[in-house]
Structure formats: C-alpha cells, structure tokens
Amino acid sequence: MKSRDEIAQALAASGYIADADLATAISLMQLLRRPLLLEGEAGVGKTEVAKALAKVRATELIRLQCYEGLDQSSALYEWNYQRQLLAIQAHRGTESIEDQIFSEKYLLERPLLAAIRRPQAPVLLIDEVDRADDEFEAFLLELLSDFQVSIPELGTIPAITIPHVVLTSNGTRELSDALRRRCLYHYVDYPDVDRETRIILARVAGASPSLSLQIARMVEGVRKEELRKVPGVAETLDWAAALVGLDVRDLHDAPETVYDTLICLLKTHEDRARVTQEVTQRLLGKVA
Questions:
Q1: Quick count: other Cβ atoms within 10 Å of Cβ 198?
Q2: For the domain 4-69+110-188, what is the CATH superfamily, name and number?
Q3: Which helix (H) or strand (E) holds 66?
Q4: CA distance linking residue 44 with residue 189, whole number of Å
Q5: DSSP secondary structure string, 180-247?
C-alpha cells in the first residue's frame, strides 16, 4: 500500500476520511520511513490519524501522551525497584548482584522503548509533543534520527523494527528546528463541508446523506462565530449522534432541538451564551 489513492481508500475503510494532502504525507512517511508531524488545532483529528493507520496496517498502536514535566524514565524505561530490592535481600553479600539487578529481567518498558522492540513494527503515537518541555524534545532526537536509545546500565539498544511514528502538536509552543528537520510535516485543518459530511456518514450510524450535509453546513457556520473554543470533529460526531438518536431527520423541522443540542458543540459558558436562539436561527437559515 504505497499510492496516495490506496492509502486514502484504506483509511476510509477504517473510518478515517483523509484529504489528498494527508494521504500523500502518509505515503511519503512510509516510503521514506520518516516520522510524520501533524500540527493543527485541538479536535481536528490528528490523534485519529495514528489510530486509523494502526488499523490499516493491522499493527499495535503504542501511545505516549506528552505533558509538562514528562521525563525520560516515564517515556523510555524504568527499573523494577521492588523486584531489585527483593533480589538484593535474597542475595545479600553476593558480589555480582549489581550486574544481575540491572539486567533485562528487571527492566520495565515504557512507550518509546516498547515501540522499537516489537517484532512487528507498531505505530508510535507521540501525542501533543508541544506540551512536553524543551529538554524532553531534545531527548527525542536520538530516537527519531537513529531509532535507537541509550540506557546507561545496558548501553545502546537499536530498534528491532522501525516503528511508524506520528507526532501531534496543537501549536501551544514553537517546536525546535531540529525536531522539525527529522519529520515530514502536515497541517491538519478543520474539514470542509464535503469531507465533514463524509466523516459523519462513515462514523454515525443512521445519519442520512441529507442530514449529514445539513449538520456539516451548520457546524461550518458555528465555527465562523467568535468562539472561545471552536468545535472539532469529535464534537460534530457527538452532535450528529445526538440528533440521530432524537430522530431528527431535517434540521429545519426541529429548530428547538437544534438549539438545545448545541451543547454537544459548545463547551464553554461564553460560547453557549454567544450562540443564542437568534444566532442559531440565523445560521440555520443559511443551511440548505
């Protein structure tokens, strides 16, 4: 599976509707065996790309969720201190005990080490890398360049297989040039009406083509309002599922339900107050 069209079709079969540029990026990622950095607003479906890719390749998804203060031990490996302590107590006085307790037997794999030691290449998702510190980002460079990691007690551990690496960033801070150079890049934007319609049809059981199109057009209008938190694709799917569950078949036939269920899209008090019934009617009036 190498061509852009083949990748787009395979992703669609797994429930992810990709545009041509994203399919091209994934094609090049596989061809060049390079990490893929996906940047974009929260909620546009960046994480779902990695999940869909793991389904398409029928392989394991290994996820490292980044956060402020994430350190090497949490991401790479830790020693099983309890077992080490028990071993020390059981072999007290043995000269070689230090070599024994710092061996594979006592090593706990964390996501990064696990990803390079699988016999079948997994998809490694390094999620929201922009939330991690600069120091952790620098630590990632060895893995992304050479697909090997260094453990002081064991030495350098090369990859058994090269994982398919997807990094995501919400743009909360600027990533280093060194990290960007090691990755292919794609900006994931909110989907246009046509693609969001197809996403709803693929993911929400019972959503008709006409209702899916109306929902996509309505969401497009909501996103153009001055909101504190613009609804993402996940919110669109929640709203579509709610409308289908309430047996709404045409938005124009249920304006009160449309307004009441906008809580699926609007996630702050300010946004809910901004999108009044009058605003809802105005937006609904633009939906064919």
A1: 17
A2: P-loop containing nucleotide triphosphate hydrolases (3.40.50.300)
A3: none
A4: 6
A5: HHTSEEEE-PPP-HHHHHHHHHHHSTT--HHHHHHHHHHHHHHHTS--SS---HHHHHHHHHHHHHTT
Distance of CA 73 to CAs 43, 148, 160, 206, Å? 29, 15, 20, 46
Q: Which residue has the higher pLDDT, 224 or 85?
A: 224
Q: Report pLDDT for 166.
A: 98
Is pLDDT of 66 > 60?
Answer: yes
Domain ranges of the chain: 4-69+110-188, 193-283
Express each pLDDT in 99-131 by its tens digit: 666 666 767 889 999 999 999 999 999 999 999
Instruction: List all residues 6 or more positions away from 96 whose beta carbon is below 8 Å from its beta carbon.
Output: none
The tokens of 198 are what? 């197809």
Q: What is the structure's pLDDT at 155?
A: 80
Choose among 100, 122, 97: nearest CA to 111. Answer: 122
- Is the model's pTM score more than 0.90? no
CB atoms within 10 A of CB 181: 10
Closest CA to 183 of 212, 151, 225, 141: 141
Length of the chain: 288
144 alpha-carbon distance from chain centroid: 18
Q: Cα(229)–Cα(275) distance, rounded to whole angstroms?
A: 12
User: What type of residue is 145?
Assistant: S
Task: Retrieve residue 206's tokens.
Answer: 């019972």
**From start to end of the chain, where are the E strands?**
36-39, 61-65, 77-79, 107-109, 123-127, 148-151, 155-158, 164-169, 184-187
